């Protein structure tokens, strides 16, 4: 182990010990410290290998009966292998939340956007990986202020947010951590796609409403609006997604979704998002079906999600950003403890793309077995 890794390991251990000590000392003072980790066995592409995927460490402090403060850090062990990826520590969330007498929330800081689409946290997304559509439209945290809650009769959920705009960026389909052993990732195992990623320096606004339509099911409508910066238009041009000379700074998203949890164990979700970024129109949609055994905390859970990302560029070129993509995720979850968040999850991700005539599809499917452990 080299000196750099020794320092990182010591820092992580010291941080964990400090958190544990603080948690014990402050247990009666409204401070709650917790965490979770993901350990995976990958089986492709490339050679099978183990990966400590990530560790989450968080602290929540009840400042008053109606005010909480929350901070969460992620530690990505695999970043240590490549200095180009930056620090392995990442500030995931940091916000203050005020809850009014009706249970509605005013949240200031960094966190998930509860005012656009289905929030893809663990409880909502079901699969371990986010999936193609969530990666494109809803995964990224926002920095700003949001107000969300329900009407007194609980028949309408609503939310509105103002925050630093999300930048046009990219994510990879098929990236298991094997590719991070080489940087940049070998193209034969990944396909990049457009995504809302990163924090800009202008403002953006979003709003959402949702209402029950059947017992256990809700339909939601969402809208986001802002403006692209010149650098983002240039980014789109560099990926062959808009023609040269474009100055249109339009940046809008709207979405419709359905979420259902039934008494028989059936769960279902559907999402549709339509986007305008300068002169580019693109769409994403997915459907999830699953089964969660009712009244059986040790029962095996099954999930299947299919999604598509459809673009309308000036032309389909050798730039993979212009390719339509499809994705199927199959996931099986086996709880290991009835009342503790510890489980095994086997997940297979089938990625397909529609390349230009001179390019070929890539071997970017992923299979892994994951142990989730909360502490």
UniProtKB/TrEMBL annotation:
Protein name listed in UniProt: Porin domain-containing protein
SUPFAM superfamilies: Porins
Keywords, sorted A to Z: Signal
Signal peptide annotation: 1-26
Signal among keywords: yes
Species, as recorded: candidate division KD3-62 bacterium DG_56
Domain of life of the source: Bacteria
Keyword Signal listed: yes
Pfam families the record matches: Porin_O_P
């Amino acid at each position: 182990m080299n000196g750099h890794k020794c320092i990182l390991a010591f820092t992580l251990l010291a941080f964990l010990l400090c958190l544990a000590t603080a948690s014990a000392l402050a247990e009666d003072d409204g401070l709650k410290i917790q965490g979770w980790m993901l350990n995976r066995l990958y089986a492709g592409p490339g050679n099978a290998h183990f990966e400590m995927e990530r560790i989450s460490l968080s602290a929540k402090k009840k400042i008053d009966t109606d005010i909480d403060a929350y901070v969460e850090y992620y530690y990505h062990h695999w970043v240590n292998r490549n200095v180009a990826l930056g620090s392995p520590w990442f500030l995931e969330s940091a916000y203050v939340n005020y809850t009014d007498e009706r249970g509605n929330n005013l949240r200031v800081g960094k966190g998930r956007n509860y005012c656009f689409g289905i929030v893809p946290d663990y409880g909502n997304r079901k699969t371990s990986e986010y999936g193609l559509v969530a990666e494109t439209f809803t995964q990224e945290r926002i920095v700003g202020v949001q107000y969300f809650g329900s009407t007194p009769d609980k028949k309408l959920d609503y939310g509105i947010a103002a925050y630093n705009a999300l930048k046009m960026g990219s994510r990879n389909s098929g990236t298991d951590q094997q590719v991070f052993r080489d940087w940049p990732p070998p193209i034969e195992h990944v396909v990049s796609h457009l995504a809302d990623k990163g924090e800009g320096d202008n403002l953006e606004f979003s709003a959402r409403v949702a209402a029950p339509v059947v017992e256990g099911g809700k339909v939601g409508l969402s809208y986001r609006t802002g403006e692209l910066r010149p650098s983002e238009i240039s980014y789109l041009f560099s990926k062959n997604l808009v023609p040269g000379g474009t100055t249109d700074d339009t940046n809008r998203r709207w979405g419709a979704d359905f979420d259902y949890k039934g008494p028989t164990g059936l769960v279902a979700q559907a999402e549709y998002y339509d986007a305008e970024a300068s002169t580019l129109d693109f769409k994403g949609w997915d459907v999830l079906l699953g089964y969660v055994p009712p009244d059986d905390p040790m029962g095996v859970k099954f999930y299947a999600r299919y999604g598509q990302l459809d673009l309308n560029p000036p032309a389909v070129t050798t730039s993979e950003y212009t390719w339509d993509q499809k994705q199927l995720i199959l996931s099986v979850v086996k709880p290991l403890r009835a009342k503790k968040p510890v489980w095994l999850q086997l997940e297979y991700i089938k990625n397909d793309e529609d390349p230009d005539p001179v390019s070929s599809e890539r071997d970017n499917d992923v299979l892994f077995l994951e142990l989730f452990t909360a502490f």
